[in-house]
């Protein structure tokens, strides 16, 4: 999890602790709704816009916010995405909300990938290990001493 730009040890611990088993979310949209990054329609007439969701897990939302700010401060794909949103006419707050939603999708996909890798094990099969189950290379039978 820490390989994601903007996630430190405490952020990774918060994600793993609060999310637990990521397979409980049916899709990335359900995950975004749970963490509060799914946009809420606040349109009026011809003016279409979305607003910040106050629902969801605020601690995970905060981790995603910190991740977004770190990505904006560095030359990352997140910063390029933010700039594309600004160029498309979004306000700075709307662009940050869009970036947080995108980062939510990235975190969800990483957790799904990690969960699948753990389930299958190193040999590609469930329960496979790289260690032998034999106690020694040559099994021997011991005789009881009379």
Textual characterization of the structure:
- The chain has 146 residues and is mainly α.
- The protein contains five helices and two strands; from the N terminus they run ααββααα.
- It has helices spanning 9-19, 28-35, 58-73, 77-87, 92-120, and strands at residues 40-41, 50-51.
- Strands 1-2 form a two-stranded antiparallel sheet.
- A hairpin with an 8-residue loop joins β1 and β2 (50-51).
- α2 (28-35) packs across α5, α3 packs across α5 and α4 (77-87) runs antiparallel to α5 (92-120).
- The longest helix is centred in the C-terminal third of the chain and has 29 residues, at 92-120.
- It is elongated.
- It starts with 8 loop residues before the first helix and ends in a 26-residue tail after the last helix.
- The mean pLDDT is 83.
Give me some keywords for this one.
5 helices; 146 residues; elongated; mainly alpha; two-stranded antiparallel ribbon
């Amino acid at each position: 999890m820490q390989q994601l730009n903007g996630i430190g040890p405490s952020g990774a611990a918060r994600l793993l602790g609060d999310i637990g088993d990521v397979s409980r979310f049916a899709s990335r949209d359900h995950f975004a709704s749970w963490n509060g990054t799914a946009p809420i329609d606040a349109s009026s007439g011809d003016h279409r816009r979305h607003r910040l969701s106050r629902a969801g897990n605020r601690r995970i939302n905060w981790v995603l916010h910190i991740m977004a700010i770190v990505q904006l401060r560095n030359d990352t794909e997140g910063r390029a995405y933010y700039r594309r949103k600004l160029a498309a006419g979004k306000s700075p707050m709307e662009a940050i909300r869009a970036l947080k939603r995108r980062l939510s999708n990235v975190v969800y996909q990483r957790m799904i990938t990690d969960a699948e890798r753990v389930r299958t094990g190193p040999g590609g099969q469930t329960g496979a290990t790289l260690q032998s189950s034999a106690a020694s290379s040559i099994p021997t039978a011991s005789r009881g001493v009379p």
